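User: Okay, second chain of the day. Same drill as before: sequence in, structure tokens out.
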Amino acid sequence: MKAFIGMGSNLGDGKALLQGAWQALGEIDGIVLDGLSNPYLTAPVDMTSQHWFTNAVGRLQVLLSPAALLQVLLAVEASFGRKRTEKTFGYQDRSLDLDLLVYGDVVMDSPELTLPHPRIGDRLFVLAPFAELEPDFRDGLGGESIAEKENRLLDYMASNKNNAQEIIRGAWSE
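Assistant: Same drill. Structure tokens below.
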């Protein structure tokens, strides 16, 4: 099954952390790495922080269930120093964040996991790298392709400057 993950870090060396996490995922049975976008430097969205994020999107081929893949992502986050507590409210600075964005055409909504990720269309830091990998991809809800979602968000931001999201495409070798 084809799955896409969002990757982010705003503490430490973001590029190194994302590359390390990507390699760690490739060592897991049932996961084959199938493509990684360029890194993007992005301003925080929906949170206040002095630290910008390094973001990327990865495409995986997986034999794991969505729930099992989510557990792998959480374990990899923890191995890279991510600490999650139930008492934490709102978004926080983090060494590593791995989000399951899409798992094939699976649509689900449970307390643990919602697929496709409910905020893909609102986040340029997801849409830009996702569109780089697979612009014509459509999730299980049908509707717009990833490139169409990105263009819609860019049009919205152009008409409403208060909701602009700063983003700079980079390269892994910089």
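The CA atoms of residues 52 and 98 lie 16 Å apart.

User: Thanks, on to the next one.
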